[in-house]
């Protein structure tokens, strides 16, 4: 009787460990990517012509924090793509500061170019992450 009880407890214990209905945890890099996408969506809706560059400030601050977290989460597995995104984001920040200090055709064109670089490097990271997320 004691053996049967031990076997039943072992089987129940093992069955509890192999719950096939449990959903695997989402990797942190996927959650970070999703957060960045939400913020980018907000940035796309800002009317800079009507509200000025100041309207972007809260979103850009949030995006900077989220990109830092994405970089940390992606660094181990997707280092080249994470480095490219970090460099592009840093260039964008510098170009935005220059455009705020002196908003002219040249500085605004540089911002446009930097935004395209961030988009391209983000797409590269997303493509690399496709099998993970």
Key descriptive features of the protein:
133 residues; mainly alpha; Four Helix Bundle (Hemerythrin (Met), subunit A); 6 helices; Lipoprotein; signal
Overview of this structure, please?
There is one protein chain. With 133 residues, the protein is an all-alpha fold. The protein has one domain (27-129): Four Helix Bundle (Hemerythrin (Met), subunit A), CATH 1.20.120. Helix content is 78%, strand content 0%. It is built from 6 helices and no strands. It has helices at 2-17, 28-45, 48-51, 57-74, 79-101, 105-129. Helix 4 packs antiparallel against helix 5 and helix 5 (79-101) runs antiparallel to helix 6. The protein is elongated. It starts with a helix and ends with a helix. Residues 1-20 have low confidence and may be disordered.
Shape: elongated
Report how far apart the termini are. 49 Å
Question: Which structural class fits the helix and strand makeup?
Answer: mainly alpha
Along the chain, the helix and strand elements come as HHHHHH
**Low-pLDDT stretches:** 1-20
Specify the biggest β-sheet.
Answer: none
* Radius of gyration, taken over Cα atoms and rounded to an integer in Å: 23 Å
Give a quick summary of the entry.
The protein is mainly α.
Annotate the secondary structure layout.
Elements: H1 2-17, H2 28-45, H3 48-51, H4 57-74, H5 79-101, H6 105-129
Organism: Actinoplanes oblitus
Signal peptide: 1-22
Protein name: Lipoprotein
